[in-house]
Design a protein that fits this description.
By secondary structure, this protein is an alpha/beta fold. It has one domain: Rossmann fold (3-Layer(aba) Sandwich). Helix content is 46%, strand content 18%. The chain contains seven helices and nine strands, in the order E-H-E-H-E-H-E-H-E-H-E-E-H-E-H-E. The strands form two sheets. The chain has a seven-stranded parallel β-sheet, with helices on both faces. A two-stranded parallel ribbon has the order 7-8. Helix 1 packs across helix 7, helix 3 runs parallel beside helix 4 and helix 4 packs parallel to helix 5. The radius of gyration is 17 Å and the shape is globular. The two termini are 33 Å apart.
């Protein structure tokens, strides 16, 4: 697609992968809306990036409805949804509470479902569109203490494949992006200290992969992309 004509909604756009993706797309002429749960953080990021920003908790139906109304009002159209909102969680099987498990699934998966559903309705009406689900290598391989997080990301793979099967006939491209470890505030909030961070992926590398997926001609699409550090 022509990135200079793209009109993009990025959830979880105030920091990390979402922020760098908005920055890179904006540098190529795209019009962008970002959202996040913290109003002050989103306002600050929107000003820095020269994009539109709105506070929204995309795990809530009313907020998603408000978000899409805002996006269409500001951009007058939409042709790309990037489902990037998500949080991490580490806890053993026996120590993870039902409340924590449910919270991770609602923020990581329910939000993608709600936004994907809203975008699909609009894209089907236009017979074109792009949905990118930002997941994790955890979608492909589990690890100790990852029950809540990994299962939410594995379920996103199921969503992505179903959407590909349903939406391809409407010229809607659906791609899942699975980064390996990325140095962002995501890990810091979990109290996790990376080993050899200089050799790990940064958010800009994932942003470059996302933009590359979007930039190819509309006749083709990439179903899934796994992004690894060369020598972590």
């Amino acid at each position: 697609m022509d990135l200079s004509k793209s009109k993009v909604l990025i959830t979880g756009g105030s920091s990390g992968i979402g922020y760098e993706t908005a920055k890179l797309l904006r540098s190529q002429g795209a019009q962008v809306v970002i959202c996040g749960r913290n109003a002050q953080t989103i306002e600050k990021a929107a000003q820095e990036l020269d994009v539109f920003g709105i506070q929204a908790d995309v795990s809530k139906e009313d907020d998603v409805e408000k978000l899409f109304a805002f996006t269409l009002d500001k951009l007058s159209d939409l042709n790309v949804l990037i489902n990037n909102a998500g949080i991490g969680f580490m806890g053993s099987l026996v120590e993870t509470s039902v409340a924590d498990f449910t919270r991770i699934w609602e923020i990581n998966l329910k939000s993608a479902f709600l936004c994907g559903q809203a975008a699909a309705k609009y894209f089907i009406s236009k017979n074109t569109g792009n949905i990118l689900n930002i997941s994790s290598m955890g979608a492909l391989k589990g690890f100790a203490n990852g029950s809540a997080y990994v299962s939410s990301k594995a379920a996103m793979s199921g969503l992505t494949m179903c959407w590909q099967a349903e939406l391809r006939k409407h010229n809607i491209r659906v791609t899942q992006v699975n980064p390996s470890e990325v140095i962002t505030d995501f890990a810091v909030k979990l109290g996790y200290e990376s080993v050899n961070p200089e050799n790990k992926l940064k958010a800009i590398e994932i942003a470059q992969a996302i933009v590359g997926v979007l930039a190819i001609n509309d006749i083709g699409f990439i179903p899934e992309i796994n992004v690894w550090a060369t020598n972590p």
